């Protein structure tokens, strides 16, 4: 399988370790490449009400990934944006977008992994991002009678020595919401603080998610208040026992993933 590694722009710039962990995980299932021509998926423009202005980003995405058998990214929000907006904005990209998956979908639905070589001896709370939860149905929603498979939770349970902590309000928004956190910052901060208080109250040492954007918002609040809790992307936990060999380091340096 020839896999195209789709790394959201903010992960590339601020959290390269998430991209590296995703790269390491995917190497077990095929030949992984990171096309350096990729840029933003265009979601910030759509979130700001300028959906059609993201057509340039969608065109770049199509050209960068059309040669791959499958495209995988560690971000439900970016993948969902491509599915819900990208095809409407630039219909010619449909074939590429149809083979683009979030990391959770790939591991749970396509590979159907039953075992993973990972160890993470910590108390971890799973933060269910709104895009992953209500857009892609990666987890069950409390407001819906019809249950969905708890895909992210089941993947985390494969990790040795991890202890999953259940918050009191399991699927409440963190307040990031893309540009909402800028235009309604006071509300956004309060929502984020509410989530942190819930996780801390229930004994979590780490907060994990399939969306680094939510974790980025929460991490900002954690650092400002010097709270005793950390954030970590799911890919980092699932790749916790991976050791990067020199050849992998060279590939990453060459592809400019840092």
UniProtKB/TrEMBL annotation:
Domain of life: Bacteria
GO molecular function: oxidoreductase activity
Recorded GO CC terms: cytosol
Residue ranges occupied by any Cysteine-rich domain in the UniProt entry: 4-83, 124-218
Pfam families assigned to the protein according to its UniProt record, in alphabetical order: CCG
Protein's name according to its UniProt entry: Fe-S oxidoreductase
Organism of derivation: Flammeovirga pacifica
